[in-house]
Amino acid sequence: MSCSKNVIVYGSGISGQGAARVLAKRGWRIFLYTDYSCKIAEELEKTLAATSGMVICGNFSKLIGSAELMVLSPGIPTDMPSVRLAENSGMEVISEIELAYRIYKGSLIAITGTNGKTTTTTIVGEMLKKLSVPSAIGGNIGLSLSEEAERLPENSWLTAEVSSFQLERVRSFAPDIAVVLNLTPDHLERHHTMDSYSAAKKRIFAQQTKEQVTVLNYDDPIVKRWAAESKGQICYFSRKKNLKKGVFIQDGNFVVKWKNKVYIICSVKEVHLFGGHNEENILSAIACGFFAGVTPEDMAVVLRDFQGVEHRLEYVTTIEGVRYYNDSKATNTDSVIKALNAFENGHVILLAGGHDKMTDLGLLMKEVKEKTDMLILLGEAKERFHEAALDCGVKGIMLADSFEDAVQKAYTIAKEPQVVLLSPGCSSYDMFKNYPERGRYFKQLVMALNS
After folding, report:
1. Rounded distance, CA 26 to CA 146, Å?
2. What pLDDT shows up at residue 186?
3. How many CA atoms lie within 13 A of 448 on its CB side?
4. CA 177 to CA 230: how far, in whole Å?
5. What is the spatial distance between Cα 107 and Cα 190, in angstroms, rounded to a whole number?
6. How many other CB atoms are there within 10 angstroms of residue 233's CB atom?
7. Backbone angles phi, psi at 413, to 5 degrees
8. How many CA atoms lie within 13 A of 325 on its CB side?
9. What is the dihedral of CA 422, 425, 431, 433, to 10 degrees?
10. Given its phi and psi angles, is residue 396 left (phi above 0), alpha (psi -120 to 50 degrees) or beta?
11. In Å, how far from its chain's centre is CA 324?
12. What separation, in Å, do the N-terminal and C-terminal C-alpha atoms of the chain show?
């Protein structure tokens, strides 16, 4: 990797600290910059100091001229004045996943989409463990991608969950297998328009070559059309159509059809994950496993054993015949719709609301009207959600004074065969640091009901 040996790493979260640690260990002088005060591990401070690097809080302008490269953490909007100042000064600005790509010598799978990234990435990670070479997952899940890239040898596979934020500042990033799961409105408070959001997502395959593979959702009308913009080999996946080639469901089985050969992986009924969205996640994961060289038999073993990921339609417990599910990772409306669709018989008591992303609520409330017996609203978004629910004719609505009150209300009214589902459709920042903290607290409150 050839660039300046003086680097600004902007952002002190997991990605930023990971990038700073990797580059400092390579002997580079790193300025770990944050707009606000932060605490970092003493070990990292010593690593930075060893090459005359340091942590700097505020006053970005004094760093101009001190470096030629900025590594941007995903939480930092690219239209921040400090980022524009850096670019106007001639500094190259790249994302942390671009840094990882530049230092990584092995084979890379990158997975993006509005929903399903974590589940798909986790399944692929388990499949790659069946290979005889080292493998890891990273990016928007687990450790920073650059730290995983640094530790893996050339003969290895790295699977990256990548968000639109991380893709905004990639340049040469060209994964061997690029996956786009779906596209629905999200993060418009940052991207502002769907065109901008789409453009960020498409960067995942923009630099691919004909030797590489682009895996796209045939059932998503927007994503399907993106095949015309990729130079890679196109592999579609579909849960609705038998494809001439690709990955699909046929006669109740997950099937791969490629180069006139058909491979049956396993029966849909054999897997623990439920819902159409999870069938899509599994299909895309099978595509990744197939092109990475995992055998159909090994993929089947993984799929039969896989229980799901925490905070994504996670079963918590059953109380007096009522099942409770934690879907705290549902931070957008489309994710809630997918969760509701997973309960084919309806009778859902839905807990929704949080920090409002200001996305349109029309389609969500139509699904809520169809599938829920009661909608319990909480957080900053509850008034707007309430208004949208009334406009759509949703009958059963309750407003909660707190997160605890929402769970208690659900417990009080829930009767078998109803299910209680936390699927907020909002980010968590009004009450929690992140969606995992929200999900864990929900589970804690539910388990206390059962004690």
Report:
1. 12
2. 59
3. 9
4. 12
5. 31
6. 16
7. -100, -20
8. 25
9. 100
10. beta
11. 23
12. 56
Looking only at the bridges linking them, the beta strands covering 322-326 and 314-319 are antiparallel
Question: For residue 58, what pLDDT is reported?
Answer: 82
Of the candidates 199, 109, 130, 146, the residue with the CA atom closest to the CA atom of residue 21: 146
Spatial distance between the Cα atoms of 57 and 35, rounded to a whole number of angstroms: 5
- Rounded to whole angstroms, the Cα distance separating 253 from 262 reads 12
Decide: 136 and 125 in contact? Cβ < 8 Å. Answer: yes
Token couple for 155:
């003969």
For residues 327 and 336, what is the distance between their CA atoms, to the nearest angstrom?
A: 8
- Whose structure tokens read 């900053």? 380
> In the structure encoding, which two tokens stand for residue 322, read together?
């009522």
pTM for the model stands at 0.85
86-138 pLDDT, tens digit per residue, is: 999 999 999 999 999 999 999 999 999 988 999 999 999 999 999 999 999 99
Q: Can you list the residues of the chain whose pLDDT is less than 50?
A: 2-3
